[in-house]
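To the team - protoporphyrin IX containing FE complex, inputs and output below.
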Amino acid sequence: MRNSLYMVVVALIVGNSFGVHGGQLGYDYYKYSCPLLEDTVKKEMIAIFATDISAPAAFLRLFFHDCQVQGCDASILLDSHDLTTHNTELVSSKNFGIRKQELISHIKSVLELECPGQVSCADIIALAAKESVLFTGGPHITIPLGRKDSTTATNSKQADLNLPSPGITVDQLLHIFTSKGMNLEESVAILGAHTLGVGHCVNIVNRLYNRKPSDRMDFVFEQMLRLKCPTRVPLTNLTFVSNDLTPFVFDNQYYTNVLMGKGLFGIDSSISTDPRTLPIVRRFAADQNYFFNVFSSAFVKLSSTNVLTQRQGEVRRQCNRIN
Ligand code: HEM
Ligand SMILES: *[C@@H]1O[C@H](CO)[C@@H](O)[C@H](O)[C@H]1NC(C)=O
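Output:
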């Protein structure tokens, strides 16, 4: 009796937090089919991070961009082999700056030796992102696994439509994340991923040279941006600026920067003026533990949206091609 009541309660909680999204994922998914999966991924990631301190940021953004187009299904890794044109997701200008995707294929090849045909590329992307957060000082997030890889080719149009521009409004931001089951706090927390990494001038100049009156920016910060990105149309795509003061550390510095008018993108600034999001930004800036907790639950929701599970999709043999 006690046991069955317990099961009902667990079912209710799990059912509630994942709902239609990701209900079939499991925390023990690879327990028998690939028991050392998480250790192997961690070991490979640490080797990668040792040679490139900027890699965690790349993996975290890769994960978001995978999940944002057709769900977390590794569609972002497909090359033009499965398309009639060369218009892969990565061709989209919204995917400018995406890097390190070939290292997911590398980890996949290691896992194919350890547990052949078992681990999806979509799960590897999610695990790489979670290790990136942990390695740089962020929370230890436990994510459910069992995503399958897509069997349909995607293209740059789908990426153009679904990936957000740096100047989206708070309403658009909330629409993107509440549709994934996040609440207001989680929607602000997931943007805290911008505690890592950089942005390039192409994503900054529009804000800088077509400033909306409502867009608050610290004066010294603005002069720095104008020096780095001096022309409306960037002469080069090589120049970049840190997302916050500590771009290699996963901390709550992003929110402190945002409060000081030093958020890099339009949306980073907008959350500091909107009355719905400002109190949350303040709270995250004041309480890193609280930010970490909300970020963790937001991350699990992001990782569980529109996933293919069980008989849907496939486990790709190679991450860049449909089997
Ligand atoms: C929905 C609102 C978001 C917008 C408008 C946005 C926009 C951007 C832009 C324009 C860049 C700069 C790319 C470049 O110029 O190289 C960037 C970088 C980045 N974004 Fe976002 N982003 C959003 C949400 C997220 C989320 C949800 C995550 C992860 C969970 C994320 C993680 C990152 C990371 C880690 C970088 C740095 C990448 C690197 O250094 O290579 N972003 N984002
Ligand atoms: C920079 O990248 C953007 C986005 O991919 C592209 O549209 C533009 O042509 C590039 N500019 C230069 C100077 O290479």
